[in-house]
Automatic annotation (TrEMBL):
Domain HTH lysR-type span(s) in chain numbering: 3-60
GO MF, any single term: transcription cis-regulatory region binding
Alphabetical UniProt keywords: DNA-binding, Transcription, Transcription regulation
Protein name listed in UniProt: DNA-binding transcriptional LysR family regulator
Pfam families named in the record: HTH_1, LysR_substrate
Lineage: Bacteria, Pseudomonadati, Pseudomonadota, Gammaproteobacteria, Oceanospirillales
Annotated PANTHER family: HTH-TYPE TRANSCRIPTIONAL REGULATOR (PTHR30126), LYSR FAMILY TRANSCRIPTIONAL REGULATOR (PTHR30126:SF94)
Family, similarity comment: Belongs to the LysR transcriptional regulatory family.
């Protein structure tokens, strides 16, 4: 091959940062050296990989085509180097993007187990809502995603991990908390505080509740379940959240789960990865370890 891994590394980091200077800084080389390496790669491939717009670098169609291939090749090189140095086939780092509920209630246990079984595999964790995890995966910020909503993007593979359920919660002092059953008509009269649009929890909640209620009185939207639960506990709001997030508050007597017999808000947590990615032993190890936790 005429090009080198170093040239591909420069290309990939420029594509990641949209900047030659930031790529050079990460590689601890001069900006001129990074520019020369990128220019040499374009010359060797006889294709323009970027368009220059001031100080910002934007990928051409050829650059977009090359980016996932460069990612896979560099990831393989990293695994070879780490595996040979440490005599461990599962080593190096894995960037995991997780939506909030599994990140709070399942991922810590998963990372602890991986630390015991594969101590040379470092898990880099980013916590965002489902929509942003998918975007981060497709933008190569994450090697693996863990989401609580749907993903119909054809560029993404999906593997179901485990089940979860959303529940309707109210303050222990709320009038509805004393009822054996709550109707949709009663729910429609209340004020709600919900997760933000783009969150998997919000997606599943909206999909199910709007089968029965055309419009809710949504008073506030936040990206933290703990903030929502504090508001529910202290005010006359209702919310729809994961039973995993709610249960400690129920056990403490702060909130109650309302019984709405006709409402079923079951969902699934899923791992996602880019369909175009090559085989990845570390990714397979993480998914296998996760499944063992819920057996």
């Amino acid at each position: 091959m005429k090009f080198s891994l170093r040239q591909l590394q420069v290309f990939y980091l420029v594509a990641t940062h949209n900047s030659v200077s930031l790529a050079a800084k990460e590689l601890d080389i001069s900006q001129s050296a990074a520019s020369m390496s990128l220019s040499q790669l374009e010359t060797l491939l006889d294709k323009p990989l970027f368009t220059r717009k001031g100080h910002r670098m934007e990928l051409t169609s050829w650059g977009e085509w090359l980016r996932p291939l460069a990612h896979d090749l560099l990831a393989t090189g990293t695994r070879i180097q780490a595996g040979m140095q440490d005599m461990d086939l599962v080593s190096g780092s894995m960037a995991l993007g997780s939506s909030q509920t599994p990140a709070l209630h399942l991922v810590p246990q998963l990372i602890s187990q991986l630390d015991k079984d594969f101590p040379r595999l470092a898990i880099e964790l980013g916590v965002e809502n489902t929509e942003h995890v998918i975007d981060g995966l497709l933008d190569f910020r994450y090697d693996l995603g863990l989401i609580e909503g749907h993903c119909d993007d054809e560029r993404v593979e999906r593997s179901i991990w485990c089940n979860d359920e959303l529940v309707i919660v109210a303050s222990a002092d709320h009038p509805l908390s004393s009822l054996d059953e709550v109707s949709f008509e009663q729910l429609s009269q209340e004020r709600w505080v919900l997760r933000e649009p783009g969150a998997g929890t919000r997606e599943v909640f909206d999909l199910n509740i709007h089968k029965h209620i055309d419009q809710l009185q949504v008073h506030r939207e936040y990206d933290q379940a703990s903030v929502i639960l504090e508001l529910v506990k202290n005010a006359e709001y209702l919310s729809g959240l994961s039973s995993r997030s709610v249960q400690p508050w129920v056990d403490a007597g702060a909130v109650c789960i309302l019984n709405v017999p006709e409402l079923n808000m079951e969902r699934k947590f899923s791992f996602i990865w880019r369909k175009q990615d090559s085989e990845n032993p570390a990714r397979d190890i993480v998914i296998e370890a996760a499944r063992k936790l819920v057996e």
